[in-house]
Structures are given as C-alpha cells and as structure tokens.
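Thread title: Can someone regenerate the structure for this chain?

I was given the following input by a collaborator and told the matching structure tokens would be attached. They weren't. Posting the sequence so someone can regenerate them.
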Amino acid sequence: MRLVHGHGRGPQLLVALFVLGLGLGALPGAPLAHGDGGAPNLAYVVGGGSGGNDLTVVDVSKRQVTGGVRLRGAPSAVVLSFDARTAYVAEPAANAVAVVDTGALAVAASLPVGTAPSALALGFTRGAEALFVAASGSNAVEILDVAKRRVVGAVAVGRRPSGLALAAPGSGIVITDINDEELYVANSDDDTVSVISTDQQQVIATIPAPGGPLGVVVPATGGVAYVSVRSGAILALSLARHTLLGTVMRLPDGHVPGQMDYNAVTGEIYVPDPAGGQVDVLRPVSAGAAGGTFNAPAEPARTLAVAGGPAAVAITFDGALGFVAARDAGKIELFDVAAHRALASIAVGGSPRAMVTGPFPPATTSSTSLLLGGIAVLALAALGGVAVLGWREYRRVRKEPAR
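Best answer:
Regenerated them for you:
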C-alpha cells in the first residue's frame, strides 16, 4: 500500500479554518476592535460630579456623561496608562495617587506619595514604565514603578513643583541614549524649570523662568517647551540648549493661565484664560540658533470664546477635537479644532479642572488569552480536518489495486 499525501486539499482546509477562526472575533459576546481612525472615544474629567471630587467619563460620540468614580483628596490631575486600562489621578489633600480601573470604573488602589501631589506624567525609567509625580509640598518629583505600584525613587527639584511634561527623543532634546527622556518641571515658588534625565533620575539642568512657573507643555517636535507663569506670561525654552528663549505672549494683568495643551499636527499651543473667558491659540515658535535674537510672532493667532472660566484644554493627538473644562460652569466644551467652532456643551457638574482623552479601554480578556484561545481552536479544527482527510484517503487507497 502506498501513502497518499493531501498536498492540495490540506493547505486549503487550514486556510479556510484560519479565516473561520479570525471570524470568531465577530461572534456575539466577543470583544470588538474600535476603528476610530485615531480619534479618542472618551474624555476623563477631574473635578466633575455633584461634589467636584469625581473622575467623570464622557463618551465623545454620544456627547454625554456615561460614568464616574468618586475620589477623595481634591483630585487635581489625571493621566492614562499606555493601554488605556488605568487612569492615575493626583489627590493633593490625601497625599496619594488613585489608581482607577477604567473598565470597571472603580478605584483599584491608592498609592501614598509625597506631600500635595499636583501634576503627573507617564513615561519610562531604566527600562520600566513609570509614573512621575510632582510632590509640591515635598519639593520633589517622585518616581513610581507602575507594575510594582510603589515609589522607587525621588528627585529633589525647586520649590513647589506644579507642572510636568516629558520631552521624548525626536522632540529636540540632545541625548546620548535613545531610551532616555527629559522631564521638565515647573517650580512655581522658585522661578525655575528643572530638567530631569529619566534614565539617570537626576536633575541635569535648571532654567530660569521668571514670574512663577505653573505649567509646561512640550510638543513632540519643534525643540521648544512652553511654560505658563503666574504673572500671566507664556515663556519659551530651548530643549537642546536648556535656556530661556523669551516671552511668547502676555495675558492682561491679573489673568493667570490655566492648563495648556498643544496640537500635535500643527504645533499650536492652546492657553486657557479663565478670567478672560477665552482660549488663546499660539503659533509655534522657533528655537533659533544659539546666541541669536528670539523673535516671537504676534500672538495670539486667534482666540476661542469659552464662558464659565476655561481652566484646562485637551487637544486630541490627531488634532481633530478639542475639549475645554469650564470650571465655573461645571461643563466641558467640545470644539472642532480645524473649523474653530463649538460642537457641544456637556454638563459634568462640580468644578472640572483637568482632563485627558483616550480610547475605550480594552476588554477584560487579555489579547494574549484571546490569541492562545484562537490558536487552540484552530489547532483542534486542523486536527479534526486532518483526521477526516486521513480516513478518506485510507478508504480510497484500500480500494486501489496493489502495484
């Protein structure tokens, strides 16, 4: 008896089974991917709710509040984990960072940190994912290992650090290690900005920033950091040279800038002016050459009228949508960035003062489990198919005459 191998039908069957296996993800109850074209699905707002202590969740497409988490300690800042499964919220009055499970909308842990944490940034240090916390009352930036959920280091900075922003490779910083990033720290009572090497975990530069630095943003490209100060000015710093370039714009006397953000597509900087009832949009400036004269364009390029004390701005990473927290009105204003027009006003209650946008959190079943499950299904189906083919071939061969 000769053996007959099914070279024609076997591969076709396996391909068909593979396609069928891929189709299992579309069955009822299976997690579905969200093809949103890069736009976020949700906005996480700090300071919402009836008491102003909630992390409120806004569904962008529905343009309404869909959930919330009651927090403690006067929450002041929020960042999302890279996989969007976790939101980290600074709680200054509790000297803690709340770890919120975004899928369950529940506080999963409360991590003790230094005195009065006021700002957060998520990045990496020495190969591990890390959360950087500006402990305003401790005059330090604390480093939390995200996986271990504990403080693993602290870096002394200027007095009362109140703003953080990461400058990654490609932004304009000068680095010798591609894994290193620079953390810019606005020290509000020290008139300085500290620059920390996240890999070395130490201050590598201190830049003068007169007027009481409050916040800082670092666009992904352009080589410039923008610092808001209590006196109402917006300052520009050179990332490559760690120097103060000059003043980009000044608000009217007595006006204090809110939480800024930038448009990753155009490089424009959005500066909320609570007292003025508007958001100023600034053109990106050039870092220029060392020793050259700093020339800022006439600013602002345009303004967006926002009633109710605009305290914070968030621009989606695709540059499509903008969100403004109207602190005194208890609302979030949604606007079309390109068209410069309002789209919706969403009531969140309380006193919204910070926010971040992101996608729907992934399903609770991990992608690894789904992959292994899919492989197992395909393997069983393939074995079944091979067995059927083998039995058919065996029966056919038995009927053939011997040679």
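Confidence is low (pLDDT under 50) at residues 1-38, 365-403.
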